[in-house]
From TrEMBL:
<feature type="signal peptide">
    <location>
        <begin position="1"/>
        <end position="23"/>
    </location>
</feature>
<dbReference type="GO" id="GO:0046872">
    <property type="term" value="F:metal ion binding"/>
</dbReference>
<keyword id="KW-0472">Membrane</keyword>
<feature type="region of interest" description="Disordered">
    <location>
        <begin position="124"/>
        <end position="162"/>
    </location>
</feature>
<feature type="transmembrane region" description="Helical">
    <location>
        <begin position="166"/>
        <end position="185"/>
    </location>
</feature>
<protein>
    <recommendedName>
        <fullName>Phytocyanin domain-containing protein</fullName>
    </recommendedName>
</protein>
<feature type="domain" description="Phytocyanin">
    <location>
        <begin position="24"/>
        <end position="122"/>
    </location>
</feature>
<dbReference type="InterPro" id="IPR003245">
    <property type="entry name" value="Phytocyanin_dom"/>
</dbReference>
<keyword id="KW-0325">Glycoprotein</keyword>
<keyword id="KW-1133">Transmembrane helix</keyword>
<keyword id="KW-0812">Transmembrane</keyword>
<dbReference type="InterPro" id="IPR039391">
    <property type="entry name" value="Phytocyanin-like"/>
</dbReference>
<dbReference type="Pfam" id="PF02298">
    <property type="entry name" value="Cu_bind_like"/>
</dbReference>
<keyword id="KW-0479">Metal-binding</keyword>
<dbReference type="InterPro" id="IPR008972">
    <property type="entry name" value="Cupredoxin"/>
</dbReference>
<keyword id="KW-0732">Signal</keyword>
Length: 186
């Protein structure tokens, strides 16, 4: 069991099992579930929802879960719902950032508080389900043969014959000035 390869596989399994736990499944209303008499604004306050999390609506018969627009949420309008379910256990994956609105489609229930608005932050932790395919175009060609054209550095050699004859004398002069300057400073 001390095989390092087995340890590595074990580490990978632990990491892979830990990553999905980052996505949280929220039971709407906790113990109260999706029902009349639960204050869902209180339930959502203090919670931070991220992309990849899910809402789990648990409810008895006689209720529905309707995802609606913001305006329909405000007016408790049922007819234009984006999605609806009445199975008693509705899991809504929060796939996009922004505010998602859910109401109960039964007459009068939304107006009596069965409405919930969930603001989803744009989470950087996407689920590892392989939805993000890498771009296929590999455009980095490492060998650029045209970039090695050397500019000849011998452009300042020719054409200064007089300076060439003067330079030993000037070197002596400069050296003498520098020596004298050091002597003055010391
Ligand atoms: Cu209801």
């Amino acid at each position: 069991m001390a095989n390092p390869c087995a340890r590595f596989v074990c580490l990978i399994v632990i990491l892979c099992s830990a990553v999905p736990s980052l996505a949280t499944v929220y039971t709407v209303g906790d113990a109260g579930g999706w029902a009349l008499g639960v204050d869902y604004s209180t339930w959502t306050s203090g919670k931070t929802f991220s992309v990849g999390d899910s809402l789990d609506f648990r409810y008895a018969s006689g209720h529905t879960v309707d995802e609606v627009s913001s305006s329909d949420y405000g007016t408790c309008t049922v007819g234009n719902s984006i999605s609806t379910d009445s199975s008693g256990a509705t899991t809504i994956p929060l796939k996009t950032a922004g505010t998602h609105y859910f109401i109960c489609g039964v007459m009068g229930h939304c107006g009596n508080g069965m409405k919930i608005a969930v603001t989803v932050a744009g989470g950087a932790t996407t689920s590892p389900s392989g939805s993000t395919a890498p771009p296929s175009g590999v455009t980095t060609s490492p060998a650029t043969p045209t970039g090695t054209t050397k500019t000849p550095p011998s452009s300042t050699v020719t054409g200064s014959s007089s300076a060439g004859t003067l330079s030993p004398f000037m070197a002596v002069v400069v050296t003498w000035v520098v020596v004298m300057f050091k002597l003055v400073l010391s």
